[in-house]
Amino acid sequence: MSANDQPGRWSLAWLAYLVTALLSVAAVVWIMDLPGANLRVPFHYSLGGDALFYQMLVKTIADHGWFLMNPNLGAPSVLHLEDFPISDNLPLFIIKLLTLSSSDSGLVLNVYFLLTFPLTAMASLFAFRSCGMSTPMAIAGSLLFSFLPTHFLRGESHLLLATYFQIPLLSLVTVWIVRNEIIRPAGEKNRRWFLSREFAAVGICVMSGACNVYYAFFAAFLFCVAGAIAWFRDGGWRPLITAAALCAIMLASLLVNLAPTFLYADQHGWSEVAERNPGDTEIYGLKLAQLVLPAPGHWLKSFRDVRHRYDSFAPRLLNNENRSSTLGAVAAIGFVLLLAVLFGARPPTTDPVLLADLSRLNLAAVLLGTVGGLSALWSFFVTAQLRAHNRISIFIAFYSLLALGCILDRACNRVPPGLPRRFATWLVAAGVAVLGLLDEAPQAFARPDHARNAAMYNRDTAFAHEIGAALPAQAMVLQLPSLPFPHTPVTHHMVVYDHLRVFLHSGDVRWSFGVLSGRQNDWWHRRLDAGALGPIPQAAATAGFQGIYIDRFGYPDNGVAIVEEVAAFTNASPLESSDKRMVFFPTFQRRQ
C-alpha cells in the first residue's frame, strides 16, 4: 500500500480534488468572462460552423430523446445520423442528463462545455498523483492540462474533441503498462478487487470506447508501444499481453458504441458520408513547429507576431485545424526536455526510469502523428477513416507536463525537508500554474465575443419565431441554396452549417437541410438544383413544402435572382430577418 492510499490521507486527497475543481471553475469564469455572458447563448454561436452542428445534436437530444434521428430536419424525409459514425455516447449521455433539467439547447451546450474543465482537471490530478507527483505540482499540472490552448481552440466547434477528460486516465494506463504494473504477480494480494489496477485499466478502456474514436485509437497505439518498451527492457510477455488485452477491450467497447452505424449500413448500405481520402492524413497531420510555437492570438505582441509570421508563410492547405495542437509554453518546455532525454540528457527527476519511458512514448506519439509519419502509412495500407492525427498532441501535452512536474518536484526536494520544502513546492507550483494559464488562454480565442453572439442569437430567434407563426403545425420549409450534409462546404458567404441557425430556434417546423449525402432523398435535391424538376418554387410546392427559406449569403448575387423568382411564383410578401440576410416566403394563407 502506497502512502497515497493510506486511509488517513484520504481526507487530504479529497480536499486536493475539491481545490482543483474550484480553481478550474474560477479560472474558466475569469478567462471566458462569464459574468458578462448570457449562458443561454452558445459561446461560439457567431462563429457558426461545427458549433451549430453540436448545438443541433444537443437540441435533437432534448427534443427527441437521443441524437440519432431528428424528424425536424431532412424534409421531406427525416435526418438519420447513423450514417455519420459517432462513438461518443458517454459525453452525449452526460448531455442527455443535463437536458433533463433544461431543454434550452444553448444553455445545455454551454454548461456541458464548462463542465469539461473541472472534469479534465480532476482526472488529471488523479493521474499525476498516481504517477508520483507531489500534490502541489499535480494540481498545477492538472490546471495547465485542463486549460491547454486546444481546449479553447476546439471549444464548442469541436465539442467532442474538447471533451478529453479520459486522456489523463488513458495516459496513466500507458505508464502502468510500461512499468508492468497492471497484472499482479501470482500470490500478491490486494485489499479490494475494485481498487486493483486491473479493474481500473479495464474500466478506463471501456469508458474510452464510449468517447472519441481518435483518442481511443491513439491510446491503443500507445498501449502497444508501452508494451513493447517494457518487453525490450525487462523481458517477458506479460506487458505485451496486457497491452493487447486492453486494446481488445477498448475495441470491443468502441464497436458496441458504433453498433447503430453498422446496423444501419447493413440494412441500407454504406453512404458516401463515410468516405475518406488517404491524402487527408498529410493535410491534417501533426507539425513539430506548431507544437512549440505560441498559440494563435497570444496576448503578448511578440509571441503573437512570431505565430503570425509562421502562419503567413506556411502553406494554407497544410495550416488548418492542426494549428490547435500548440502545447503552451510550460508543456513545450517539458516536450523539449523529453526530446533531450532521448539524446542522453539526464535532468534530475524524482523518477529517472519514468522520465526515460515518457521520452519514448512521446517520440512514438510524434512519429505517429507527424506529416509523412506512421499515420500516413496506416491511412494508405489500412484505413483512411481517421485522418486528423494532429489530435494526438493531447497525449504529448500530458506526457510533457508529467515529465516537467517530476523534474520540478526533484528541484524542490533539494530544499531542507519540513515546512521550507512544502512552502517552496507550493510556491513553485503556484508560479508555474499562474504563468502557464496566462500563456495558455490568450484573450483572442479564449474569451468569446458575448455581445456579438447575443446579437446574432437574438436576430435568429426573432426570425425563426416569425416563420413559426406563419406556418401550420409540422409544415415543411425548403431551404435554399440546397447544400449537402454533413460535409457542408463553405458557399460564397455562407459558413458551414449556417442553414441550422433557424432550426435551432424553431419548434415543430420541418426543415429541408439535413439530407444525408448519397441517400435517396439527396437525389431529389440534386435534381432540384439541376433544374430537372422544373422551376424551384413549383417543384417545392409539388413536393409539399409550405414555405421557402433563402439565405442570401449562399448566392454570388446576394440572392437577388432567386428571391425575385420565388416572389413571382408565390405573389406574397416575404418575411426578412432584421439584417435582410434571410428571407422567407410562405406558400399558403397565413395562420390567423
Biggest sheet: strands, sense, closure? 5 strands, mixed
Cα-atom Rg, whole angstroms?
A: 26 Å
How do the strands of the widest beta sheet line up side by side? 4-3-5-7-6
**DSSP E strands, number:** 7
**What separation lies between the terminal Cα atoms?**
75 Å
Average residue-wise pLDDT: 90
SS strand fraction: under 5%
User: Uncertain regions: pLDDT < 50 for 5+ in a row?
Assistant: 1-5
Structure annotation, total helices: 26
Please summarize what this structure is.
This protein is mainly alpha-helical and 592 residues long.
Task: Label this structure with key terms.
two-stranded antiparallel sheet, 592 residues, disordered N terminus, mainly alpha, 7 strands
What does this structure look like?
The chain has 592 residues and is mainly alpha-helical. Helix 9 (197-209) packs parallel to helix 11 (238-257). A five-stranded mixed sheet has the order 4-3-5-7-6, with helices on both faces. Strands 1-2 form a two-stranded antiparallel ribbon. Mean pLDDT is 90; it is low at 1-5. The chain is built from 26 helices and seven strands. The protein has helices at residues 10-31, 50-64, 89-99, 105-130, 135-146, 149-154, 159-162, 167-178, 197-209, 213-234, 238-257, 259-268, 280-283, 288-292, 301-313, 329-342, 352-369, 374-381, 393-412, 419-440, 443-446, 450-469, 500-503, 520-530, 536-542, 560-570; strands at 69-70, 79-80, 476-480, 510-511, 547-551, 575-576, 582-586. 56% of the residues lie in helices and 4% in strands.
